[in-house]
Amino acid sequence: MAPIPTPPAEPQDNPETYVGLEAGRAERVARERGWSTVRSLAPGTIITMEYRFGRLNFEVEDGRVARAWKG
Fold first, then answer.
1. Is 61 left (phi over 0), alpha (psi -120 to 50) or beta?
2. CA dist., res. 7 & res. 41, Å (int)
3. I need a surface site. Which of 2, 58, 68, 71 has the fewest CB within 10 A?
4. Cβ contacts of residue 61 below 8 Å, gap of 6+?
């Protein structure tokens, strides 16, 4: 049986620090801090609930991050 892979460590970063930032700037900062995937979503976008290590999600409203969460 193959060993279960160990997921990479996520950046030690608080998603709340992105709330209120302009979306493009927030994405640049997130990538600089080590997030491998940054996803911007419109309010109410239907998404799957799978958790992805290294992914940071932004809900963007009027060009600014209204909510941010890992996975």
1. beta
2. 24
3. 2
4. 42, 43
User: pLDDT tens digit string along 10-63?
Assistant: 899 999 999 999 999 999 999 999 999 999 999 999 998 888 889 999 999 999
Whether the Cβ atoms of residue 71 and residue 11 lie closer than 8 Å to each other: no
SS3 state at 26: helix
Whole-model pTM over 0.70: yes
Q: What is the distance between the alpha carbons of residues 46 and 3, in angstroms, rounded to a whole number?
A: 33
| Cα within 13 Å of Cα(39), Cβ side | 18
The residue behind tokens 């309010």 is 43
